[in-house]
Design goal:
The protein has 4 helices and 8 strands; from the N terminus they run αββββββααββα. It is of the alpha+beta class. The N terminus is likely disordered.
């Protein structure tokens, strides 16, 4: 009895005629091209991203300073404030002075950030350096827990408390009387709430002496 057998499967082998250096060159060229495209994409999008961030920050400054008649920028250089930046102004910490129509300083705004529950929380702060009274605050960046921690930005009742409050602030569950230094924290988001309070307290405490020294030196 005979049995018929099909043809045995064959396995294709790499073309022995292709030099390994050519394969490596092809792979290297593809990698270089991909890298070049990534660099070009980064160079293309970075200016627009930077411009957008600048617009957002400028709008936040105007908001927390209640749209002043005029604004001037001060740069932090070696722990002191100056109108003349050293090096790249974009890399320097800066404060913005707001002035009313009569030329009187109506407030100062600055950006500050510290770690929160999930990531760094960035806040734009408007305040009166004379007594620490807050003109307003706006969250510029946060990645807190959706539905809880992100209320530091989305809860108008929480955000609204800071207008007219007076630093240093204290986080409380319920305000007692008309204490302007008390801020009611968000239920379920105490850490995020206290992060905003801590950022504002630390920033105002650091900026006030610099502004006082700047004002003394600016006097004729």
């Amino acid at each position: 009895m005979t049995h018929s057998h099909g043809a045995a499967p064959t396995t294709e082998l790499p073309d022995a005629g292709t030099p390994s250096w050519r394969l490596l060159a092809t792979l290297g060229g593809s990698g270089a091209l991909a890298g070049l495209l990534l660099v070009l994409a980064w160079q293309w999008t970075t200016p627009s991203i930077t411009a957008h961030r600048a617009q957002v920050e400028q709008a936040a400054v105007a908001e927390v300073l209640k749209v002043p008649a005029r604004m001037d920028t001060l740069y932090v250089v070696d722990g002191k404030l100056t109108r003349t930046p050293v090096g790249d102004p974009a890399k320097l910490e800066r404060l913005v002075e707001g002035f009313d129509a009569q030329g009187k300083r109506s407030g100062v705004a600055g950006r500050a950030g510290e770690p929160g529950f999930a990531d760094v929380v960035s806040v734009m702060i408007g305040f009166d350096p004379a007594d620490g009274s807050l003109l307003g605050m706006k969250i510029l960046g946060q990645k807190e827990t959706p539905g809880l921690g992100d209320k530091i930005e989305k809860d108008s009742a929480f955000v609204g408390q800071f207008t007219g409050a007076k630093a240093p602030l204290t986080g409380v569950k319920a305000r007692s009387g008309d204490n302007k230094s008390q801020v009611v924290t968000i239920t379920g988001a105490t850490i995020s709430s206290r992060t905003v309070i801590r950022i504002i307290n630390n920033a105002v405490a650091r900026w006030q002496p610099m502004l006082a020294a700047y004002d003394r030196e600016a006097k004729p």
